UniProtKB/TrEMBL annotation:
<dbReference type="Pfam" id="PF00225">
    <property type="entry name" value="Kinesin"/>
</dbReference>
<feature type="region of interest" description="Disordered">
    <location>
        <begin position="627"/>
        <end position="649"/>
    </location>
</feature>
<feature type="region of interest" description="Disordered">
    <location>
        <begin position="690"/>
        <end position="743"/>
    </location>
</feature>
<keyword id="KW-0175">Coiled coil</keyword>
<dbReference type="InterPro" id="IPR027640">
    <property type="entry name" value="Kinesin-like_fam"/>
</dbReference>
<keyword id="KW-0067">ATP-binding</keyword>
<keyword id="KW-0547">Nucleotide-binding</keyword>
<feature type="domain" description="Kinesin motor">
    <location>
        <begin position="8"/>
        <end position="339"/>
    </location>
</feature>
<comment type="similarity">
    <text>Belongs to the TRAFAC class myosin-kinesin ATPase superfamily. Kinesin family.</text>
</comment>
<keyword id="KW-0963">Cytoplasm</keyword>
<feature type="compositionally biased region" description="Basic residues">
    <location>
        <begin position="702"/>
        <end position="712"/>
    </location>
</feature>
<dbReference type="InterPro" id="IPR001752">
    <property type="entry name" value="Kinesin_motor_dom"/>
</dbReference>
<dbReference type="GO" id="GO:0003777">
    <property type="term" value="F:microtubule motor activity"/>
</dbReference>
<feature type="compositionally biased region" description="Basic and acidic residues">
    <location>
        <begin position="690"/>
        <end position="701"/>
    </location>
</feature>
<dbReference type="GO" id="GO:0007018">
    <property type="term" value="P:microtubule-based movement"/>
</dbReference>
<dbReference type="GO" id="GO:0005524">
    <property type="term" value="F:ATP binding"/>
</dbReference>
<protein>
    <recommendedName>
        <fullName>Kinesin-like protein</fullName>
    </recommendedName>
</protein>
Length: 743
């Protein structure tokens, strides 16, 4: 039975050690961790403050000398185990840049004990697979990055491309066209991880990105099937999200423009939305949870308030200079503790890929049988099996194939049969040729028929070989425990150690619980033993003091939250101001270079795309200079002769394309009426706006007197007055821009 118990998001806080620089700079350590009690105390480093230290309690807390193994056993181990059982699980690291999120999630390869959650999860998964030799598994991995509110596929060669997030009624939000790799062992998983990290690095260098400003999500999907007593297969699908979030510190927008501003605003947007989602979830009164406000929260919807087992690891630094950010992270983590999820096992999902694969394998096996197909099957075999090929991206690798000997026998048989067909054909040919009582024309006809028959048989043989190849590929994707024995043996010892550690901790926990119970009993006894008013008063006084200190810390908390809101408000005002400046600049460019009537036309055609959160112009590829082909804007650099030739070619191409498009789309109301100005040509050169109309098209375009150099974004460089448009020009609103009528 699938569990539907409500369970809270588990929150662990980890404080990294002082960095070398912090030690050299003589920074004070302001964080104290009591791992046994899951407590953490932060002192205010401001010299003139009377504020008492802040105390927080979480499911787990880890100090500066905490071990990666310990953190894995406490936080990730139970989640990964659940994913193997068919639950969804999410582990995410949150915190300021440089506090150890990546160290916690990935760790270091050497020394071994510094390996983080991700490599340890790989080991646990394949160890888990090995423990179930009767179960078949299909394990897939995907890796994506959210940067600047754009989703990039880190396993794709074109990781620069942005992917769309779509919504399906069954599985919620998902990334369309995301690469998914089938993995069969730890080495495959590592290869996938390294490929993604490499692509992330390339993106960083090529596109001037900073990985601490992007969120990465590594997802492992584990499908398993087990047959019951009656031979019916039952499927389960567990999904593990391993999330390394962008640095949570406030992004400064001061002085940012263009891409950098967009980046700063979007990073805040994702994390702000994550915070808003958390707040809305824990605030009983909220009916709307703003998942749709950012890509990150769309993809993590199930992990926050959904059917997933979730662990948040908040990372902080110990030094005094991080005080504000540390408090902010701790408050964030405190709120997350109250999120309630309802994890459930995903049983027999409709879209289980493993089922499709197994069906396909069974079908291929039935087709191949013991290697012989009927003549009818042979003649149509290929076509039968083309349909329903599951969409799995394959990882190239060499792996063990089940039924190796059987498949080899079939392969040999196919080769043998091929040779026999050739031999028989030759023999029959000779027989026909030797027959003296048949006319030459008849002999020729018979030989032709014989050859045709032989060719058909060969085609059928080839189809059979293809079937065999396909069967091999299908079987390679499905793994069962026994196949990865070697790797498992290597890791068994280590996992054994981890399990022992876990058992030890469980014992410790039991001991602690026992202690608590004992103390509670003691307390009750003590209470019962109150025999004087004096003691009662003293006790009440103690309780009052306790309550008062709670009241004070609640007040402090309130002050902090108010200060945080004020800061966020100021941030938003800053963003609005910078965006306003950007809008003014864009308006200046638009009114200076796009004629008003064209601008209105474009605006009337523009449509807001909810999914992509951007304006789009339908069929933009059919409009304006796009029709003129590549290089249209580079005319200035060509010689007069080349220009003429180029113009002729372009004009001819434009006419052909325009005509064909007009014909094709004449009935379509969404197509921009490009025929209105098919020869309009806009130019802007290094020297400023250029006139290049029909009268001047033979000569080098000249800069308009009134045209200014382009505005660089600084207020001082914007043109101060409108140049006078020429009366004959169709674009009276455009400044510094004229149409060029070219034929
Ligand atoms: N618990 C730890 N023990 C030892 N070293 C640590 C620990 N945590 C972090 N470090 C070290 O601190 C540095 C910063 O850590 P890391 O890169 O993991 O931070 P981050 O939060 O992921 O930063 P970013 O947001 O920039 O990705 C690294 O050199 C890392 O090795």
């Amino acid at each position: 039975m699938a569990s539907k118990k409500v369970e809270s998001v588990k929150v662990a806080v980890r404080c990294r050690p002082m960095s070398e620089k912090e030690i050299v700079d003589g920074r004070a350590c302001i964080v104290q961790v009591d791992a046994k009690r899951g407590e953490l105390i932060v002192a205010n480093p401001k010299p003139d403050t009377s504020e008492p230290p802040r105390q927080f309690t979480y499911d787990n807390t880890y100090g500066q000398d905490s071990a990666q193994e310990q953190i894995y056993c406490d936080t990730a181990y139970p989640i990964v185990q659940s994913v193997l059982e068919g639950y969804n699980g999410t582990i995410f690291a949150y915190g300021q840049t440089g506090t150890g999120k990546t160290f916690t999630m990935e760790g270091k390869e050497e020394p071994q004990e510094n390996r983080g959650i991700i490599p340890r999860a790989f080991e646990q998964i394949f160890y888990g697979v090995d423990q179930h030799p009767q179960t078949q598994f299909l394990i897939r991995a995907s890796f994506l990055e959210i940067y600047n509110e754009d989703v990039h596929d880190l396993l794709s060669k074109s990781s620069k491309n942005k992917l769309d997030i779509k919504e399906s009624p069954d599985s919620g939000f998902y990334v369309k066209d995301l690469t998914t790799c089938v993995v069969k062992g730890i080495e495959d998983m590592k290869a996938v991880m390294d490929l993604g990290k490499g692509n992330r690095h390339v993106g960083e260098t090529l596109m001037n990105r900073d990985s601490s400003r992007s969120h990465s999500i590594f997802t492992i999907t584990i499908e398993s099937s087990e047959s019951d007593n009656t031979g019916i297969n039952h499927y389960k699908v567990g999904k593990l999200n391993l999330v390394d979030l962008a640095g949570s510190e406030r992004q400064s927008k001061t002085g940012s423009t263009g891409d950098r501003l967009k980046e700063a605003t979007n990073i805040n947007k994702s994390l702000l939305t994550l915070g808003n989602v958390i707040s809305a979830l824990v605030d009983g009164a909220s009916t709307h949870i703003p998942y749709r406000d950012s890509k990150l929260t769309k993809l993590l919807q199930d992990s926050l308030g959904g059917n997933t087992k979730t662990v948040m690891i908040a990372n902080i630094g110990p030094a005094d200079w991080n005080y504000d950010e540390t408090l902010s992270t701790l408050r964030y983590a405190n709120r997350a503790k109250n999120i309630q999820n309802k994890p459930k096992i995903n049983e027999d999902p409709k879209d289980a890929m493993l089922r499709e694969l197994q069906d396909e394998i069974a079908r291929l096996r039935a087709q191949l049988g013991d290697g012989t197909l009927t003549a009818e099957q042979l003649s149509m075999g290929g076509q039968i099996l083309q349909a329903g090929d599951p969409q799995v991206v394959e990882v190239e690798k060499i792996i063990r194939v089940e039924d190796k000997a059987k498949i080899k026998a079939i392969e040999d048989k196919i080769v043998r049969e091929k040779e026999e067909i050739l031999l028989q054909t030759e023999e029959k040919k000779k027989e026909i040729e030797a027959q003296k009582d048949i006319a030459e024309s008849e002999k020729k006809k018979l030989i032709e028929e014989l050859q045709k028959e032989a060719e058909e048989q060969q085609i059928a043989q080839e189809k059979q070989s293809k079937l065999l190849k396909k069967l091999k590929q299908m079987e390679q994707k499905v793994i069962s425990g026994a196949q990865i024995m070697e790797q498992a043996v290597r890791q068994e010892q280590e996992l054994q150690k981890a399990r022992m550690e876990l058992e030890m901790r469980e014992q410790q926990e039991q001991q602690l619980n026992q202690d608590i119970n004992d103390r509670e009993t003691e307390n009750t006894e003590m209470l019962n033993n109150f025999n004087s008013k004096h003691e009662e008063i003293a006790d009440k006084d103690k309780k009052l003091k306790k309550l008062y200190s709670k009241f004070q810390s609640a007040q402090d908390e309130m002050k902090d939250i108010q200060a945080e809101f004020a800061q966020e408000r100021q941030d938003l005002i800053d963003t609005i101001n910078v965006l306003k400046q950007q809008v003014c600049l864009k308006n200046l460019v638009l009114t200076s270079f796009i004629p008003q009537d064209q601008l209105s036309l474009i605006e009337s055609f523009a449509q807001w795309n909810e999914e992509g959160e951007e304006w789009i112009l339908p069929r933009l590829d059919l409009a304006g200079n796009n029709l003129r082909g590549p290089g249209a804007g580079k005319i200035k650099k060509k010689s007069k002769k080349n220009e003429k030739e180029y113009d002729g070619a372009v004009s001819q191409r434009v006419q052909t394309v325009v005509q064909s498009i007009l014909q094709e789309y004449s009935e379509d109301p969404m197509v921009m009426p490009i025929e209105a100005n098919p020869t309009v040509y806009f130019m802007y050169t290094d020297e400023g706006a250029m006139r290049a109309d029909s009268e001047q098209s033979e000569s080098k375009p000249k800069r308009l007197k009134s045209a200014k150099r382009p505005a660089s974004g600084k207020k001082s460089s914007a043109p101060k007055e409108n140049p006078q448009p020429k009366p004959e020009e169709a674009y009276p609103q455009a400044r510094g821009l004229v149409s060029a009528k070219r034929r």
